[in-house]
Amino acid sequence: MGYRCIQCGFNIKTLYLQYSPGNIRLMKCENCKAVADEYIECEITIIIIDLILHKPKAYRHLLYNVINQETLKFQGLLWKLAAIFLLFDACIHSYHLMEFYYFLMP
């Protein structure tokens, strides 16, 4: 199983080249010429924030390049991710609803 570009979904062999510990070079996609997965360098908190903000690239990074379908029970994990997505979505909608009610109250 290979990796995929989070921009266009094109299959790539590797996401980065490591020259020495802490010195890596991110690979570019052959199809779209953009960095294949910039989330490789990001900390987990940045990725979680982008997941909360529903950024498609963060979800693609998680589904294409982090989760290995051969080692994990993919169907169970997919249900967990769907539940987390719905929870985040419900939090955002409840926040907007509270904001709306506070706006209407005198």
Question: How is the topology of this model organized?
Answer:
Blueprint: E1 3-4, E2 11-12, E3 16-20, E4 23-26, H1 44-52, H2 56-66, H3 74-104
Antiparallel strand pairs: 1-2, 3-4
Helix pairs in contact: 1-2
Fold and architecture overview:
With 106 residues, the protein is of the alpha+beta class. 48% of the residues lie in helices and 12% in strands. It is built from three helices and four strands. A hairpin with a 2-residue loop joins strand 3 and strand 4 (23-26). The longest helix is centred in the last third of the chain and has 31 residues, at 74-104. Regulates also the sphingolipid metabolism. Keywords: Endoplasmic reticulum, Lipid metabolism, Lipid transport, Membrane, Sphingolipid metabolism, Transmembrane, Transmembrane helix, Transport. Belongs to the ARV1 family.
> Structural class, please?
alpha+beta
Rounded mean pLDDT is: 83
Query: What distance lies between the first and last C-alpha atoms, to the nearest angstrom?
Result: 59 Å
Largest sheet: 2 strands, antiparallel
Give the overall silhouette.
Answer: elongated
Give the proportion of residues in helices.
Answer: 40-55%
Trace the largest sheet across and list its strands.
1-2
The gyration radius over C-alpha positions equals 18 Å
Low-confidence stretches: none
Order of helices and strands: EEEEHHH
The helix tally amounts to: 3
Which band does the percent of strand residues land in?
5-15%
- Number of strand segments: 4
Pfam families: Arv1
Family: Belongs to the ARV1 family.
Function: Regulates also the sphingolipid metabolism.
GO cellular component, one term: Golgi apparatus
